[in-house]
Protein backbone atom coordinates (compact mmCIF):
# COMPACT_ATOMS: atom_id res chain seq x y z
CA UNK A 1 0.00 0.00 0.00
CA UNK A 2 1.46 3.34 -1.09
CA UNK A 3 1.80 5.85 1.76
CA UNK A 4 -0.45 8.88 1.52
CA UNK A 5 1.11 12.33 1.50
CA UNK A 6 -0.03 15.37 3.46
CA UNK A 7 -1.20 16.99 0.23
CA UNK A 8 -3.37 13.99 -0.64
CA UNK A 9 -4.93 14.05 2.83
CA UNK A 10 -5.60 17.79 2.57
CA UNK A 11 -7.26 17.21 -0.82
CA UNK A 12 -9.46 14.48 0.67
CA UNK A 13 -10.46 16.75 3.55
CA UNK A 14 -11.44 19.45 1.03
CA UNK A 15 -13.51 16.96 -0.96
CA UNK A 16 -14.95 14.73 1.79
CA UNK A 17 -14.81 16.77 4.99
CA UNK A 18 -12.77 15.97 8.11
CA UNK A 19 -14.16 12.46 8.76
CA UNK A 20 -11.85 10.37 6.59
CA UNK A 21 -11.45 6.60 6.55
CA UNK A 22 -7.74 5.95 7.11
CA UNK A 23 -8.12 2.50 8.65
CA UNK A 24 -4.88 0.51 8.54
CA UNK A 25 -3.02 3.23 6.61
CA UNK A 26 0.72 3.74 7.02
CA UNK A 27 1.04 7.41 7.97
CA UNK A 28 4.29 7.05 9.89
CA UNK A 29 6.55 10.09 9.93
CA UNK A 30 4.08 12.39 8.17
CA UNK A 31 3.59 16.01 9.20
CA UNK A 32 -0.15 16.36 9.79
CA UNK A 33 0.10 19.32 12.15
CA UNK A 34 -2.77 21.83 12.32
CA UNK A 35 -5.16 19.66 10.26
CA UNK A 36 -8.83 19.13 11.15
CA UNK A 37 -9.33 15.35 11.27
CA UNK A 38 -12.34 15.30 13.55
CA UNK A 39 -14.24 12.03 13.28
CA UNK A 40 -11.53 10.30 11.21
CA UNK A 41 -11.15 6.52 11.39
CA UNK A 42 -7.51 5.64 12.21
CA UNK A 43 -8.27 2.09 13.38
CA UNK A 44 -5.03 0.05 13.38
CA UNK A 45 -3.25 2.81 11.44
CA UNK A 46 0.50 3.32 11.74
CA UNK A 47 1.02 6.84 13.11
CA UNK A 48 4.42 6.26 14.65
CA UNK A 49 6.67 9.34 14.60
CA UNK A 50 3.84 11.36 13.05
CA UNK A 51 3.62 15.10 13.72
CA UNK A 52 0.02 15.83 14.69
CA UNK A 53 0.53 18.92 16.84
CA UNK A 54 -2.02 21.74 17.09
CA UNK A 55 -4.61 19.58 15.31
CA UNK A 56 -8.34 18.94 15.79
CA UNK A 57 -8.93 15.19 16.07
CA UNK A 58 -12.07 15.04 18.21
CA UNK A 59 -14.37 11.98 18.25
CA UNK A 60 -11.86 10.03 16.15
CA UNK A 61 -11.26 6.29 16.17
CA UNK A 62 -7.62 5.58 17.06
CA UNK A 63 -8.21 2.18 18.62
CA UNK A 64 -5.31 -0.25 18.20
CA UNK A 65 -3.36 2.42 16.32
CA UNK A 66 0.42 2.75 16.62
CA UNK A 67 1.30 6.27 17.84
CA UNK A 68 4.67 5.51 19.38
CA UNK A 69 7.04 8.51 19.45
CA UNK A 70 4.35 10.68 17.81
CA UNK A 71 4.09 14.43 18.53
CA UNK A 72 0.46 15.18 19.44
CA UNK A 73 1.15 18.24 21.59
CA UNK A 74 -1.48 20.98 21.92
CA UNK A 75 -4.02 18.96 19.90
CA UNK A 76 -7.66 18.23 20.76
CA UNK A 77 -8.54 14.53 20.96
CA UNK A 78 -11.56 14.94 23.23
CA UNK A 79 -14.05 12.11 22.93
CA UNK A 80 -11.70 10.00 20.82
CA UNK A 81 -11.27 6.23 21.09
CA UNK A 82 -7.72 5.06 21.88
CA UNK A 83 -8.60 1.62 23.24
CA UNK A 84 -5.64 -0.71 22.86
CA UNK A 85 -3.55 1.98 21.14
CA UNK A 86 0.23 2.20 21.58
CA UNK A 87 1.48 5.66 22.54
CA UNK A 88 4.78 4.74 24.16
CA UNK A 89 7.21 7.66 24.20
CA UNK A 90 4.75 10.02 22.51
CA UNK A 91 4.53 13.76 23.24
CA UNK A 92 1.02 14.63 24.43
CA UNK A 93 1.91 17.76 26.38
CA UNK A 94 -1.03 20.13 26.86
CA UNK A 95 -3.27 17.88 24.79
CA UNK A 96 -7.06 17.72 25.31
CA UNK A 97 -8.35 14.20 26.01
CA UNK A 98 -11.60 15.10 27.74
CA UNK A 99 -13.85 12.01 27.99
CA UNK A 100 -11.47 10.09 25.71
CA UNK A 101 -11.39 6.29 25.98
CA UNK A 102 -7.85 4.97 26.55
CA UNK A 103 -8.79 1.69 28.21
CA UNK A 104 -5.98 -0.83 27.86
CA UNK A 105 -3.77 1.65 25.97
CA UNK A 106 0.02 1.60 26.41
CA UNK A 107 1.51 5.00 27.32
CA UNK A 108 4.85 3.96 28.80
CA UNK A 109 7.13 6.98 29.17
CA UNK A 110 4.61 9.29 27.49
CA UNK A 111 4.77 13.05 28.11
CA UNK A 112 1.36 14.31 29.29
CA UNK A 113 2.57 17.56 30.86
CA UNK A 114 -0.45 19.76 31.67
CA UNK A 115 -2.73 17.47 29.65
CA UNK A 116 -6.49 17.67 30.16
CA UNK A 117 -7.83 14.17 30.86
CA UNK A 118 -10.97 15.00 32.82
CA UNK A 119 -13.50 12.12 32.77
CA UNK A 120 -11.25 10.05 30.50
CA UNK A 121 -11.26 6.26 30.75
CA UNK A 122 -7.78 4.85 31.46
CA UNK A 123 -8.90 1.52 32.91
CA UNK A 124 -6.06 -1.01 32.82
CA UNK A 125 -3.86 1.42 30.85
CA UNK A 126 -0.07 1.09 31.14
CA UNK A 127 1.22 4.46 32.33
CA UNK A 128 4.55 3.35 33.76
CA UNK A 129 7.00 6.24 33.93
CA UNK A 130 4.53 8.68 32.38
CA UNK A 131 4.88 12.44 32.93
CA UNK A 132 1.57 13.84 34.23
CA UNK A 133 3.08 16.93 35.83
CA UNK A 134 0.24 19.41 36.57
CA UNK A 135 -2.19 17.37 34.46
CA UNK A 136 -5.96 17.52 34.95
CA UNK A 137 -7.55 14.17 35.80
CA UNK A 138 -10.83 15.16 37.43
CA UNK A 139 -13.24 12.19 37.66
CA UNK A 140 -10.84 10.17 35.50
CA UNK A 141 -11.11 6.39 35.65
CA UNK A 142 -7.65 4.96 36.40
CA UNK A 143 -8.84 1.70 37.92
CA UNK A 144 -6.33 -1.16 37.61
CA UNK A 145 -3.94 1.16 35.73
CA UNK A 146 -0.17 0.73 35.97
CA UNK A 147 1.25 4.02 37.28
CA UNK A 148 4.54 2.71 38.63
CA UNK A 149 7.22 5.42 38.71
CA UNK A 150 4.76 7.87 37.15
CA UNK A 151 5.26 11.57 37.77
CA UNK A 152 2.11 13.40 38.88
CA UNK A 153 3.45 16.40 40.85
CA UNK A 154 0.82 19.09 41.10
CA UNK A 155 -1.74 17.02 39.19
CA UNK A 156 -5.46 17.48 39.89
CA UNK A 157 -7.11 14.09 40.51
CA UNK A 158 -10.22 15.21 42.37
CA UNK A 159 -12.86 12.44 42.44
CA UNK A 160 -10.68 10.15 40.29
CA UNK A 161 -11.08 6.38 40.44
CA UNK A 162 -7.79 4.69 41.35
CA UNK A 163 -9.23 1.40 42.52
CA UNK A 164 -6.61 -1.38 42.38
CA UNK A 165 -4.16 0.96 40.59
CA UNK A 166 -0.43 0.28 40.98
CA UNK A 167 1.23 3.53 42.07
CA UNK A 168 4.47 2.13 43.45
CA UNK A 169 7.31 4.69 43.40
CA UNK A 170 5.07 7.33 41.80
CA UNK A 171 5.52 11.04 42.54
CA UNK A 172 2.26 12.50 43.87
CA UNK A 173 3.85 15.49 45.59
CA UNK A 174 1.54 18.53 45.73
CA UNK A 175 -1.17 16.57 43.86
CA UNK A 176 -4.79 17.44 44.64
CA UNK A 177 -6.55 14.15 45.38
CA UNK A 178 -9.66 15.12 47.28
CA UNK A 179 -12.25 12.31 47.40
CA UNK A 180 -10.29 9.95 45.15
CA UNK A 181 -11.03 6.23 45.46
CA UNK A 182 -7.88 4.35 46.49
CA UNK A 183 -9.56 1.03 47.30
CA UNK A 184 -7.09 -1.76 46.69
CA UNK A 185 -4.45 0.64 45.33
CA UNK A 186 -0.73 0.10 45.93
CA UNK A 187 0.91 3.28 47.25
CA UNK A 188 4.15 1.85 48.56
CA UNK A 189 7.23 4.06 48.09
CA UNK A 190 5.03 6.88 46.77
CA UNK A 191 6.06 10.51 47.26
CA UNK A 192 3.13 12.06 49.14
CA UNK A 193 4.86 15.29 50.15
CA UNK A 194 2.21 18.05 50.39
CA UNK A 195 -0.37 15.79 48.69
CA UNK A 196 -3.98 16.75 49.47
CA UNK A 197 -5.87 13.56 50.35
CA UNK A 198 -8.81 14.85 52.35
CA UNK A 199 -11.85 12.55 51.97
CA UNK A 200 -9.84 10.11 49.85
CA UNK A 201 -11.33 6.65 50.28
CA UNK A 202 -9.27 3.56 51.00
CA UNK A 203 -9.99 0.05 52.24
CA UNK A 204 -8.23 -2.82 53.92
CA UNK A 205 -6.59 -3.83 50.63
CA UNK A 206 -5.00 -0.41 50.07
CA UNK A 207 -1.24 -0.65 50.59
CA UNK A 208 0.70 2.22 52.18
CA UNK A 209 4.29 2.54 53.32
CA UNK A 210 4.88 0.89 56.67
CA UNK A 211 4.07 3.32 59.48
CA UNK A 212 1.99 5.68 57.32
CA UNK A 213 -1.33 6.59 58.92
CA UNK A 214 -3.90 7.75 56.31
CA UNK A 215 -5.92 9.38 59.09
CA UNK A 216 -3.22 12.05 59.36
CA UNK A 217 -4.15 13.28 55.85
CA UNK A 218 -7.90 12.96 56.58
CA UNK A 219 -8.40 9.99 54.26
CA UNK A 220 -11.47 7.88 55.03
CA UNK A 221 -11.62 4.12 55.52
CA UNK A 222 -14.43 2.57 53.49
CA UNK A 223 -16.95 0.75 55.59
CA UNK A 224 -17.72 -2.82 54.69
CA UNK A 225 -21.16 -3.33 53.23
CA UNK A 226 -23.44 -5.31 55.42
CA UNK A 227 -25.45 -7.97 53.67
CA UNK A 228 -28.74 -8.80 55.28
CA UNK A 229 -29.61 -12.45 54.83
CA UNK A 230 -33.14 -13.72 54.47
CA UNK A 231 -34.29 -16.10 57.16
For the structure shown, list the relevant keywords:
231 residues; little secondary structure; two-stranded parallel sheet; 1 helix; 2 strands
Would you write up a description of this structure?
By secondary structure, the protein is low in regular secondary structure. The chain is 5% helix and 2% strand. The protein has 1 helix and 2 strands, in the order αββ. A two-stranded parallel sheet has the order 1-2. The relative contact order is 0.08. The mean pLDDT is 96.
Summarize the structure.
The protein is low in regular secondary structure and 231 residues long. Helices cover 5% and strands 2% of the residues.
Backbone CA Rg: 20 Å
**Uncertain residue segments:** none
Q: In which range does the helix fraction lie?
A: under 10%
- State the order of secondary-structure elements, H for helix, E for strand: HEE
Shape designation: elongated
- Beta-strand portion reads under 5%
Find the structural class using helix and strand composition. little secondary structure
Name the strands of the widest sheet in spatial order. 1-2
Total number of β-strand segments? 2
- Report the total helices: 1
Oligomer: single chain
**On the 0-100 scale, what is the average pLDDT?**
96
The biggest sheet amounts to: 2 strands, parallel
Q: Distance N terminus to C terminus?
A: 69 Å
Question: Secondary-structure blueprint of this entry?
Answer:
Layout: H1 6-16, E1 201-202, E2 220-221
Parallel strand pairs: 1-2
Amino acid sequence: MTQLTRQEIEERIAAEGSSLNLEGQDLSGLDLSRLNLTGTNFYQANLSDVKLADAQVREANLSEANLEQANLSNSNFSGSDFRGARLNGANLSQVYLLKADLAGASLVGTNLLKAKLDEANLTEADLAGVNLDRAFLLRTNLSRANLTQAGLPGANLKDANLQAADLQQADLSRAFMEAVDLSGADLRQVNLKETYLKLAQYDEQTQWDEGFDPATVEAVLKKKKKWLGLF
